[in-house]
Write a structure and sequence with these properties.
Blueprint: H1 2-22, E1 34-37, H2 43-55, E2 64-67, H3 71-79, E3 87-90, H4 96-101, E4 112-123, E5 135-136, H5 156-162, H6 170-173, H7 176-186, E6 197-201, H8 206-215, E7 247-249, E8 263-264, E9 269-270, E10 280-283, E11 285-288, H9 298-308, E12 314-319, E13 328-330, E14 332-333, H10 340-344, E15 351-358, H11 373-390, H12 397-406, E16 497-499, E17 505-507
Parallel strand pairs: 1-2, 5-14, 6-11, 6-12
Antiparallel strand pairs: 3-15, 4-12, 4-13, 4-15, 7-10, 8-9, 8-10, 16-17
Helix pairs in contact: 1-11, 2-12, 5-7
Length: 508
């Protein structure tokens, strides 16, 4: 029966492609290969699946290419006024608001292709400095009904990445509680005097969404990171904010690292990359939107940057792959490591499912006067790949599982069958993620775009809630700061930081 079903499918596909090739008006659809976007984490899995689908004869050669711009990019492509793709490789579920508006998009078990975990990546071998495989405590949220297996607000990681309350604004990110969390994490670093940068994925990333959801963070301390805004990913041209009030020296670039934004703080003026010192600095939390030279994706770029820092002063988060590259490892959380049993059993806090999701809205829907031949050709090609990945009568787990294993991910179960068992994350109920409560950030009209950036110093500008934006990024005298020197302070009018004699320091 399986062979018969596959033969029928291939015949249907070939017929569809033949029809689409000429189009209703006899014009050939010349747009192939068609690009679809999705998760950076599973880049190689998707690319190898395209190759396998073509080799198996289910997919036609030369029809599809994959762009790893993030799970959010895939979600947005499906939500576009004129949808640009039908399938969505994602390292998270659709967001709750999307599922409310499109209940038919809710994934079934077949959409879960495997398992992974977000991890805190640290360097553990070689160089003049190293980190031991740390254990980071993250108390669970007391409301385990509405937030099952989520951390409480204001755990060490939540404070470090999102500030007090996970709000991500300047006051929350310069709060003494956040600096205490920083000091606590620093004690886990033998022989290291500071943590210079904590690299993260940008806001299109499912990994970033996993961290926000699981750690109860509304916004990261560096601010908005929309990723690419032009024709290509570029850290310096994306509009990513550098708003973290903990300031650091701008890192030197070399041939293996693409530059990241440094700003004249507390103003938001971009600095030339070579400028360093107290005036021109970079925040502790830094977003990456661009893969570094020689790295296949941003996950491995973060891994390389952490390993590249021989003083072991650099941290970051990514998928498990980042902790297995270049002599890195992953920190345990609540004494549980992101091992295979910890992830499959959903006992490691940041365990997650990997999806290939599907929309009930076709490519080019709403285009006038009608969908094009290219729209139909792309949709046909994507449906063929989707069937090969998820349909056991076409391909399914028996063909996709070896690809997952080859790239360090966990198949749902080892024998290619359907996931089952109470201790298997693949087979647990798929609840929608918690509703996002992050308010839209704002800027004065006409500055840097369309009013979606972080609040600036003009308190007359209203946020979407109707309240004035808080002054940015200055804080009052006596606000918490880190270290000494003007570059560590939070207020343009301050002259430096003074030790308060109680283990803290404050702006003069």
């Amino acid at each position: 029966m399986k062979k018969t079903t596959r033969t029928i499918f291939k015949t249907s596909l070939a017929t569809s492609l033949a029809v689409v090739a000429t189009g209703s008006a006899g014009v050939m659809a010349a747009g192939a290969p068609y690009t679809f976007v999705g998760s950076d984490t599973i880049t190689e899995v998707v690319k190898d699946s395209i190759t396998g689908c073509v080799h198996d004869g289910t997919c036609a050669a030369g029809q599809l290419t994959y762009s790893n711009t993030g799970s959010g990019a895939a979600e947005n492509a499906l939500l576009a006024t004129i949808p640009t793709q039908r399938i969505a490789p994602m390292s998270r579920n659709f967001k709750s608001g999307v599922l409310t508006a499109h209940s038919g998009w809710a994934p079934a078990q077949k959409n879960i292709i495997g398992l992974d975990a977000a991890v805190i990546v640290e360097r553990t071998t070689g160089g003049t400095g190293y980190r031991r495989a740390a254990n980071i405590a993250a108390a669970l949220d007391p409301d385990q009904v509405n937030f099952p297996h989520h951390a409480a607000v204001d755990t060490l990681l939540g404070l470090l990445l999102g500030g007090k309350g996970g709000l991500g604004d300047t006051a929350s990110c310069s709060a003494p509680e956040r600096l205490a969390a920083y000091d606590q994490l620093l004690t886990m670093t033998p022989g290291t005097t500071q943590i210079t940068h904590f690299y993260r994925r940008d806001d299109r990333s499912g990994t970033a969404d996993t961290m926000k959801e699981k750690l109860r963070i509304q916004r990261f301390c560096n601010g908005r990171s929309p990723g690419v805004t032009g024709v290509a990913d570029d850290n310096m041209a994306t509009g990513n904010d550098d708003s973290d009030p903990i300031r650091r020296v701008c890192p030197n670039s070399d041939s293996t690292l693409n530059p990241t934004p440094c700003t004249l703080y507390p103003a938001t003026t971009r600095c030339t990359h070579e400028l360093q010192g107290d005036a021109c600095t970079q925040g502790l939390v830094v977003s990456l939107s661009q893969s570094d030279p020689g790295q296949a994706d941003i996950t491995t770029s973060i891994a390389y940057r952490i390993s590249h820092d021989q003083s072991a002063q650099t941290l970051g988060f990514g998928g498990r792959e980042a902790s297995r590259r270049f002599g890195n490892s992953a920190a345990s959380i609540n004494t549980i490591s992101p091992s295979d049993p910890g992830v499959r059993g959903d006992v490691y806090l940041l365990s997650r499912r990997l999806f290939v999701n599907f929309s009930d809205q076709v490519v080019g829907f709403g285009r006038t006067p009608a969908r094009t031949a290219d729209d139909i050709a792309q949709e046909t090609a994507e449906e063929a790949l989707y069937s090969w990945i998820t349909d056991p009568d076409v391909g399914g787990r028996g063909l996709v599982d070896p690809i997952l294993v080859a790239h360090g991910f966990l198949p749902c179960i080892g024998n290619g069958g359907e996931p089952s068992g109470s201790n298997n994350l693949c087979s647990k109920q798929i609840p929608p993620p918690a509703a996002e409560t992050t308010p839209k950030q704002c800027i004065p009209p006409g500055v840097n775009g369309n009013g979606t950036d972080i609040c600036c110093a003009d308190p007359t500008v209203l946020s979407t809630s109707g309240t004035p934006c808080a002054a940015f990024p200055c804080a009052a005298a006596n606000a918490a700061c880190l270290g000494t020197g003007q570059g560590n302070c939070c207020n343009a009018g301050t002259t430096g930081c003074t030790d308060q004699g109680d283990g803290t320091s404050a702006c003069n």
